[in-house]
Automatic annotation (TrEMBL):
Coiled coil: none annotated. PANTHER family: 3-OXOACYL-[ACYL-CARRIER-PROTEIN] REDUCTASE, SHORT-CHAIN DEHYDROGENASES/REDUCTASES FAMILY MEMBER. SMART domains: PKS_KR. NCBIfam families: PRK06171.1. It comes from Lactiplantibacillus daowaiensis. Residues 9-192 form the Ketoreductase domain. Pfam families: adh_short. SUPFAM superfamilies: NAD(P)-binding Rossmann-fold domains. Keywords: Oxidoreductase. This is SDR family oxidoreductase. CDD domains: SDR_c.
Amino acid sequence: MDWLNLTGKTYIVTGGSSGIGAAIVTELINNGAQVINADLKAGEFKAEKLTFIQTDVTSREQIQTLIQTILTKFGKIDGLVNNAGINLPRLLVDSQQPASQYELDETEFNKMFAVNVKSMYLMSQAVGHELVKNRGGVIVNMSSEAGLEGSQGQSAYSATKGAINGFTRSWAKELGTSNVRVVGVAPGIMEATGLRTPSYEEALAYTRNISVETLRAGYKSTGTTPMGRSGKLSEVADLVNYLLSDRASYITGVTINVAGGKSRG
C-alpha cells in the first residue's frame, strides 16, 4: 500500500548528494517520487527517478536555470527540501590564541549565512512562486537542534539555524492562504556521515577545549538522550517524507525536533 501517496510527485532536494540529504533522496525515490538533486557535486546514488542538476544554491541565476529546467522536463514542482548547509565550528573569542584559525571571521560568517540562510530564501522564493500558482505544495526547511538550543563553538551555525526557524514560522503564515505548507525539521546528534570530517572534529574539539577522542566518545554518550543512541539518517528521511505527503496536510509553521528526547537538563 502506497500510504504516503508520493508516486508521481516531483520534489527538489538541495544538497542531496551526501548525509541527510542523500537519505531523504533515497527514501523519496523508494516512495515513488521523482527527485531532483540540486548540489554542487553528484552523489553516488543512481536511480531512474533521480535527476542531478549541478546548482550553486546561493546564486539566483543558477536557481532560475534549475527551476526552468525542471519545469521543462517534468512540468511541475510539488515541493522543496531545503537541505544544503555548511558548519564551520568557530569561537566568538579565542581567549588562548586571539585571531586564531578557530576564531570566527567575516569570511566564514558570510559563507555559513550564504549557504545556510540565503540559499533557503532564494530557493523558497523561486519554488514558492510555482507552488502558489498551483495552489498547493510543501517546503521543508532543514534546521538543527543547535538552532533551538545554541551550541558551544558553533554560534554562527546555530544562528543560521535559528534564522531558518524564523523563516519557517513566517512563511507558513504568508503561504498558508495559498494551501502551501512550510515545516522545519531539527535533527540532533546523528550517526556518522561523510560530513563529520577530521577537520570538522578538530575544530569542534578545539572550541570546546577537549580532545578529538573525547568529542567522539560524546557522540555515543546517552546521558542526555532518553532513547540512548544517536539518530539514524533514515529516521530523519522518514519524517521528511511524511511531511511532504498529504498525510501531514494540517502541519505547518512548526519545527519538529528529531533528537531522541535529548535535553541539556
